[in-house]
Amino acid sequence: xxxxxxxxxxxxxxxxxxxxxxxxxxxxxxxxxxNRDRIFDRFFTTERDHGGTGLGLPIARAVAERRGGWxxxxxxxxxxxxxxVV
Length: 86
Known about the structure:
alpha+beta, Heat Shock Protein 90, 6 strands
């Protein structure tokens, strides 16, 4: 699986303390602070011209929370990591 300029995307899953932790990490430029603050807002997208609706991440987070889990991210200039815990 690749993202951006052909850099690899890592997907890891493990069970810890009775919960499933899924981490998806890329090695791109990261998400800038302004977008990071809004990325889970409904209808926020930087990809509208490519068909993005800004609903995917908010829906995923809501489903995780409804099941007692969470979805969050860490981002830096060396890449971004989303972690889903359910």
